[in-house]
Amino acid sequence: MTPHHAILATAGHIDHGKSALVKALTGNDPDRLPEEKLRGITIDLGFAHLELPGHSLGIVDVPGHQDFVKNMVAGVGAVDLALLVVAADDGWMPQTEEHLQILSYLGATRGVVALTKSDLVEDTTKRENEIRQQLQNSPLADAAIVPVSAHNGTGLEQLKTALAAAAETMPPHTDDGQPRLAVDRVFTLQGIGTVVTGTLTGGTMSKGATVTAHPPGRDTRIRTLQSHNRAQDTAQPGTRTALNLADAARGDLPRGATITLPALATPTRTLDVLLERSARLGQECAPLRNDTRVRVHHGSGHWPARLVLVEGKTLAPGATQLAQLRLEHPACVWPGDRIVIRNWPESATLAGGRVLDAQGDRQGLRSAAHKLFLQTRANAPKSAEAWITSQLARDGIARRNALLRPSTFSTAEIEAAITALSTAETALAAGDWIADSARWKKACEAMAAAVNAEHRAHPERPGLAMEALRPLTQKAFPIGDVFAELLDSLCQNGFKRQAKYLVALTHKPALPPHLRAAGEKIRQALTEADPPARKILAGTSEGSQALRFLIEAGEVIEVSPELAMSAAQFNRFRMLLKKHLRAHGKATASELRQALGTTRRILIPLLEKMDRDGVTLRQDNVRVLRPEK
């Protein structure tokens, strides 16, 4: 059976034994830097791998010192399971609390608490009760607490069992076609080149594939890749992955860079978010103020930004607020992503949040429509149906293949939401677009009303020129061009296209009173077997206007600048011509004149029109039927 892949991240106060525990579990020392060995503390991220029954865990070991919290956040950005480490002799400490809050902000809901150094106390019961009390009102409130000792191995098997049980509750990672790797380590190997490592999420990456690295914001190719220290052709989501990138210089790829598909690399400088401050901070904590310069942590990177609150001037502990983060440098962030906010001096974690819109509108931030859009998403952060509804309510339409792409929602979730909204008649499909049903109906009604008004005002005209309707569609749907789709919708509901006009099926063009006599005279003249020349039919101003009306109405066919005939006679000639050519294969003009029973004056312009219309094809002195495509 193929094991499920997941990422396990440690968390906890300095010197509580995180790295020693990882070494005891896996046999690998995650502290890799000489300075770490010298000082005996974890400074940067360390990595290891643990195989459990049915599960393959990539482990990210994080530093516990307050000075290196930014490195800790970089390591837990894509965490599936948390291993919160608390020393039995010290108990709950400041970084234990800060790390727990960071895990909460990032949406970590599964984990195990390792009560390390249990060999240093006679009884762990009191400490376990203290920890359980501290975990109240947190995502890890019900997490198993396992006393362990990396020194003598006590409890390691029980800890593995608890981790396996927590991993069993995780939904498996799926390939959703949105692969993304947040770079947490960059190095160069002699003869190989630049290598980046990180946690792969959202989809697979394969050897030879073209990807975009941001920064620097350009395409590169995956030469080779490894997953959990093994060479692979394809890396699966939920794994620690190393990519050897062609034409990529180490200096161009910092920690925090994003590797993804070119179509998904959409950097932004403006994030609309639902911001939350943990109630665990206590009311004595200073409020977070509007227009504060902060550091936004996302994935494995962090960026300076200006915080703008949508309403009010402060955000107190335990409160939530819609906000906008105006980044000083572009970042590759997607809707649905989790972020952590730390203060500018990097001495405290302030808040966390979920990205509601990764391409925020700075000018329209406080408009009623935009606030409704954001609040709808904030009220249902995991509902693809609500997020699509909010977008359609704001924009009216969205391309189906770009709806919530990229985002943290899966293809299956998006398609299920579209189906549900279509069934409820809240949304409808129109070609490549998904539209808000109410707005679509209103736009169709406005276009229909404009056509009917034209019919009433000018019954002699065939209809309303279609281009005259375009401004109505642009008003209803300022984002995207759905003019053709709206016309199609109308043509399925009582209208038709006629030349360049849109016409109601119930409309019958009528000559205005002052042209009726001239029109009747033309109709009468065209009943003759040999219709008069066009200059005779349109010999007066009224005659010219009446003839133009009859042509646009389809009652008269304009054969040439010199010849017009009734539609009935034209259709009869075309039928006789096709019948003759089907029977004989080809025919001269003389033979066709006899078959149609007309004069050369009529026949020659008639044949030329049949050529233009694609009915016939001239070959030297004969005509043949043009093959149907």
Concise description?
With 629 residues, the chain is α+β, with helices and mostly antiparallel strands.
Structure description:
- The protein has four domains: 4-168, Rossmann fold (3-Layer(aba) Sandwich); 180-264, Elongation Factor Tu (Ef-tu), domain 3 (Beta Barrel), CATH 2.40.30.10; 268-368, Translation factors (Elongation Factor Tu (Ef-tu), domain 3), CATH 2.40.30; 513-625, Winged helix-like DNA-binding domain superfamily/Winged helix DNA-binding domain (Arc Repressor Mutant, subunit A, Orthogonal Bundle).
- Strands 2-3-1-4-5-6 form a six-stranded mixed β-sheet, sandwiched between helices.
- It is built from 18 helices and 34 strands.
- Strand 2 (46-52) and strand 3 form a beta hairpin.
- By secondary structure, it is α+β, with helices and mostly antiparallel strands.
- It is 31% helix and 30% strand.
- The mean pLDDT is 92.
- The longest helix has 21 residues, at 437-457.
Q: How would you summarize the topology of this molecule?
A:
Blueprint (H helix, E strand, L loop, with lengths): L3 E9 L5 H9 L7 H6 L6 E7 L2 E7 L7 H7 L5 E7 L6 H12 L5 E6 L8 H10 L9 E4 L8 H13 L11 E10 L3 E9 L3 E2 L3 E5 L3 E10 L2 E3 L1 E2 L3 E7 L12 E3 L7 E9 L11 E2 L2 E7 L2 E9 L4 E2 L4 E12 L6 E6 L5 E9 L10 H12 L4 H12 L1 E3 L11 H13 L3 E4 L2 E4 H21 L6 E2 L4 H7 L6 H9 L3 E4 L2 E4 L11 H10 L8 H4 L3 H12 L3 E5 L2 E4 H18 L2 E2 H8 L3 H13 L3 E4 L2 E4 L4
Parallel strand pairs: 1-3, 1-4, 4-5, 5-6
Antiparallel strand pairs: 2-3, 7-8, 7-15, 8-14, 9-13, 10-11, 10-15, 11-12, 11-14, 16-21, 16-23, 17-20, 18-19, 18-22, 19-21, 22-23, 24-26, 25-26, 27-29, 28-29, 30-31, 32-34, 33-34
